[in-house]
Specification:
The chain is mainly α. The chain has 13 helices and no strands. Helix 5 runs antiparallel to helix 11. The longest helix has 30 residues. The radius of gyration is 19 Å and the shape is globular. The two termini are 20 Å apart. The C terminus is likely disordered.
Length: 303
Amino acid sequence: MKATLYTIIALIAFAANSLFCRMALAEGYIDAWSFTIIRLLSGAICLSIIMGIYSYNLRRKDLTLNNPQNKAILKDKGSWLSSLSLVVYALCFSIAYVELDTGTGALILFSAVQLTMIGWGIYKKEQLSALQWMAFIVAVAGFVYLMLPSAAVPSVLAATLMAISGVAWGIYCIRGKICVSPLRATGFNFIRSLVAIPLLLIIGMVYLKNMPLATISIEGILLACASGAIASGMGYSVWYMAMPLLKSTQAAVVQLCVPVLAAILGVVFLSEQLTLPFILASAVILGAVLVFILNKKAPQTAS
């Protein structure tokens, strides 16, 4: 039940993140570089506050030095590899997002995520049954059917950046299997990512030399903050709670539900049209993912 609950919450957060990015970048409220910087900064600030309160209560209720579990929790400070993966994912996604059609970007991104995480799962000798392979193929087919109508031939640079983003996200997810405290690991990963902000500012100023600062609107800043503090900071923390309870292959496949959930949020909040092909594709994807997950019990400890 924990794995299911954490996974559902995290997937909704991922879908909300997609919605925030679409509203901010597609509408031109803010540029990709500024969006990424504000996203990382707001996530770090939000999680720092939550971590401070959590650590204070932990030290207050228990004698930390005499409690091995608490000591392990307080020692979990993420890693530089996870933080680097987070920065690469966020920046490459934001830049490529404005250059690609929704369908094209989703196809490239999730293909890279699937290859990375399922490839890692196979490397770690995770066994998949014939039914799971069939469910995976059906889910991918439904995903392609859903995204293909809005896909177009992408530029090489944008496609490469989106593929790099997918690989980086896959690595970030896999790293979550070894964390002791999901909240602290995510928080420190965001805090470490702030080291990259000066570099992003410098490159961004060169990249955006012809773009006036007036293009950064209040709406863009608010959407970037919502993406960083809520959908990313809190959402990634919950995802890191789910990762040790899931196999890498399971964590990869369930993410095929994100475009479906993002489209549903678009219907609810952006009044986008609900079509019969979307309903059919969504039913196929969700059904196949459900078969894949239920076919074999997830492990209870990290590998």
